[in-house]
Amino acid sequence: MLNKYNHLLVIGTPIAWWLSQTKVRFKFLIETMVALPIVLPPTVLGFYLLIFLGPQGSAGKLVSYLGGPSLIFSFTGLVLGSIVYSMPFVIQPLQHAFSVIDKRADETAATIGFSRLRRFFYLFLPLSKTGYLSAFVLGFAHTLGEFGIVLMIGGNIPGETQVASISIYNYVEMLEYEKAHTLSLLLLLISFTLLAIIYSLRIRFGRY
User: Fold this and answer.
1) For residue 172, what pLDDT is reported?
2) Which residue ranges make up each domain of the chain?
3) What architecture does CATH give domain 2-205?
């Protein structure tokens, strides 16, 4: 899962940076696309990803042509779907963190010869560390509750694509309520702790 968050940050950081700095007229369309997984039913997103990543889909055909493994009903496909589904929970906190940084600090760094790339690494990244922490916590917490998209792309393969939320569903179907309760309580405690961290950061820093 750490690899998943590495990919989320690598993909999400430049998008969040661009959205926080650009003033192009179609910016709202990009923001809409980024936020879409928040409101879109997971099964809808999962269905289209299943088509896209499947043997007859664009990505599936390309990977097959290159000799790669199947992207559906596999851990690789599960991670790809999870990245797409979790993207807004990473991009939005980072975009906000970048956008609230004092513009005067950026202008001052520019006047003394700092390039845009250097200002990003030496100014924006250090001042956005709380935003990165929020992005990590929200992304991780969101992963705990993934169900529909995981089931659509990864299936329900024990030991490979079966996640906690699906395990709870299986326990309930088998009337093993004690196991379902134990796992549900664990996820509840983890989710509560992660959200408490987010809100404590907001109180402490007054932003993000």
Assistant:
1) 93
2) 2-205
3) Orthogonal Bundle (1.10)
**Residue type for 145, please?**
G
pTM value > 0.85: no
Burial code (b: 16+ CB inside 10 Å, e: under 16) for 21-42 equals eeeeeeeeeebeebeebeeeeb
In angstroms, the CA 141 to CA 138 distance is: 5
Q: Which two tokens stand for residue 98?
A: 């970048």
Give the tokens for residue 160. 């490979």
Helix then strand then coil, in percent of the chain rounded to 5, is: 75, 0, 25
Give the pair of three-digit tokens for residue 189. Answer: 């405690």
**DSSP class of 97:** H
Cβ neighbors of 2 (< 8 A, separation 6 or more) are none
In degrees, rounded to 5, the angle at the alpha carbon of residue 69 between the alpha carbons of residues 66 and 75 is: 140
CB neighbourhood size of 179 (10 A): 14
Sign of the torsion angle spanned by Cα atoms 32, 37, 39, 43: positive
**Dihedral of the alpha carbons of 148, 182, 173, 71, in degrees to the nearest 10:** 30
Tokens of 117: 């790339």
Confidence bin at 2 (pLDDT 50/70/90): low
Q: What is the pLDDT of residues 3-54, one digit of tens each?
A: 666 788 889 999 999 999 898 999 999 999 999 998 888 889 889 998 999 8
With contact defined as beta carbons under 8 Å apart, do 208 and 97 qualify?
Answer: yes
pLDDT digits (tens, 9 = 90+) for 185-202: 998 998 898 888 877 876
